[in-house]
Each structure stands twice: as structure tokens, then as C-alpha cells.
Write a structure and sequence with these properties.
Layout lengths: L1 H29 L4 E8 L4 E9 L2 E7 L6 H18 L11 H18 L5 E8 L4 E9 L2 E9 L4 H18 L11 H16 L1
Helix pairs in contact: 2-3, 4-5
Length: 204
């Protein structure tokens, strides 16, 4: 009888350990992945860019890149927003009165960065954006949580101008695992359209 109790106890402990490990692995996969992620959005006077650091699945630092916002208005607002986001561990915070557009830009930039930290769900997605000649549509393939292919499905761009962008931008997106890559010289609008379409495919 004592032996049976001991065996049952050992089995129970083993079950609890395995359950804990599985739960821990699942939580890590579903949460924010460690790393530094860039996000960018429109502020009052221009783009507001941020580098968001994730460590241990939590937001540990937000570095705001040089911007065009009015310093004496934007800087105190940015400081407040960064503090609030770090404290609450969410970008769903209130805008700062008197700096609405800057606040909205920073919040949107952080949310964009956090979407990247969440990783990508496997599947095939389509997204569209406005190019130089009209709507540009892409197909994005995600496998094992990574972007494996970006293909331009439809476009009205000028062929001899857009050709290099169609090749180089998708390759750069796959290599960097991000839709924020360098534009191709001479095809800036088309390059940005591909990036925006990929972002739409993966986030909307």
C-alpha cells in the first residue's frame, strides 16, 4: 500500500512538472519575443520613430529616435508617455494634453513595434497600398513564425523603373524580417508601397 502511494505521488509530481513546462513554453510563444523592435508613425511635424526593447517578455526600454516635433511641447509629452507605457506594459495609454498629434504618433509607433515582437502567425496574407501608378498588392507567406516570401501580385508601376524595387525590397524584407527596409534608389514611391502593403498584410 505504501509503495502504491509513493508511485502515485511520483506520478503526480511528474505530471505537475510537465504541465508547468508546457504552460511556460506556450506562454512564452504567445507573449512578446525578446529583442529590439522598430516602429514609426506620423506625429505633428513628421515621423516619430522608436526602438522598443523586450526582455523577459516585458517592455524594458523605449528609445525615441531624433524627430521633427517641437521640442518644448513634444519632449515632456514623450517622457510622460514612455514612463506610462513602461509602467503599464501597454501602449494603450492616454495622450498628453497639448501634444495630441505627437502622442498619437508615439503610441502608434510603439504599437507597431509591439506587433513585431508578438511574431507572425503562419499563413499566406495579402495586402495593398498606393504605389506610383495605382494600387499595389502583395502576397506574404509566413512559415514557422518567419516571413519566407513576399511576392508582388498586382501593380500599375512603370516596369523599367519598378523592376529593381520588385526584386530588392521583398528580398530585404525576408532577410530583415521587417517591412522597414531601405528604399531602392529611383523607385522610392514603389519601394514604400511594397513596404506598406506588406505591413497591411501582416497587421490588418
Amino acid at each position: 500500500m505504501q509503495t502504491r502511494r509513493n508511485v502515485s505521488l511520483i506520478l503526480l509530481i511528474a505530471l505537475l512538472v510537465v504541465t508547468g513546462v508546457v504552460w511556460s513554453m506556450g506562454s512564452q510563444e504567445e507573449g512578446l519575443k525578446d529583442g529590439v523592435y522598430f516602429g514609426q508613425a506620423q506625429g505633428f511635424a513628421g515621423e516619430v520613430g522608436v526602438d522598443v526593447t523586450i526582455s523577459g517578455g516585458k517592455i524594458t526600454n523605449i528609445e525615441v529616435r531624433p524627430h521633427q516635433e517641437t521640442p518644448f511641447i513634444a519632449d515632456p509629452a514623450i517622457e510622460t508617455l514612455v514612463k506610462n507605457i513602461l509602467e503599464t506594459q501597454t501602449a494603450d495609454v492616454d495622450v498628453v494634453s497639448g501634444a495630441t498629434y505627437t502622442s498619437q504618433g508615439l503610441i502608434a509607433a510603439v504599437k507597431q513595434a509591439l506587433r513585431k515582437a508578438e511574431g507572425f502567425q503562419d499563413g499566406v496574407y495579402t495586402g495593398s497600398a498606393q504605389g506610383f501608378g495605382g494600387t499595389l498588392t502583395v502576397e506574404v507567406t509566413v512559415a514557422n513564425g518567419s516571413i519566407t516570401k513576399v511576392a508582388v501580385l498586382e501593380n500599375s508601376e512603370t516596369p523599367f523603373i519598378a523592376e529593381n524595387a520588385f526584386k530588392q525590397v521583398p528580398e530585404a524584407i525576408v532577410a530583415n524580417q521587417s517591412w522597414e527596409v531601405d528604399v531602392v534608389s529611383g523607385a522610392t514611391v514603389t519601394s514604400k508601397a511594397i513596404m506598406a502593403a506588406v505591413e497591411a498584410a501582416l497587421t490588418e
